[in-house]
Known about the structure:
Layout: E1 2-6, H1 17-27, E2 29-30, H2 32-37, E3 45-46, E4 49-53, H3 72-83, E5 87-91, E6 110-112, E7 116-120, E8 123-128, H4 138-147, H5 150-158, H6 161-178, H7 183-199, E9 204-207, E10 213-220, E11 223-230, E12 238-243, E13 246-251
Parallel strand pairs: 1-4, 2-3, 4-5, 5-6, 8-9, 9-11
Antiparallel strand pairs: 1-12, 7-8, 10-11, 12-13
Helix pairs in contact: 1-3
Amino acid sequence: MKAIFLSDAHLKGTGDAAHQKLVRFFDRLGGRAGIRSGQAPDAALIIDQLVIAGDFFDFWFGRGDAIYPAFRQIVERIAALKREGVRISFCEGNHDFFLDDYFTRQLGIEVYPEWADFEIDGCRILVSHGDTVDRENRKYLALRGFLRSPFVYRLQRLLPLRLLWWVASLSSRMSKEMSRASAERLVGIMHLFARGKFQEGYDAVILGHCHKPFLSEESCYGRRKTFATLGDWNTCNSYLLYDDGCFTLNYFPSDGSDG
């Protein structure tokens, strides 16, 4: 099995650098069904699963098949990977939520409001954006609960689309300000959280949100345990690769090359 985990691209539209990097990266990915059908013969990396651990979009609200037009290109790349047999999963972040309205209902893609529990090659993996791990930031947790409330869900279904995009962008800025914390502090909190999950039987805990790529392995109850934070696509271009039982942090070139 091969799987890729990534998060925190914070896509705003086709003009931002992270968007173009991700399009080039997705162009290098392919699924096994695509190879068999001849659809992905040039793919440099054939994968079985892609897990996006939140804040892929800097904001997201959708309605039926109507999505923000500037996101259409990258969404089409995701849909193409699914057609090639790649299992795709979204964990919602603090910037992108209500994703199932489009990704599940229109594309048949798995969406997890917070925690995703996978088993790959006998390895039990817990994945989340990770923005609720720091329980001391109560103002942010209150804002998060409000933005995901039935009231806001119903409201966003009623707003004209242009106003909806503006409200989504505003909520993104509010969430960013209230969840701000040092990357080093967040990694420490998340690592302690992961060790608790190791004792519950998880073999790997993979989180986003802190924008700092980090990977550590340790032994617990005689099994190798992996903790990772995924970094971001604005400064790090980082992603986690699972390949035949091993996790590695990787970095996509930012200079436009395919190296």
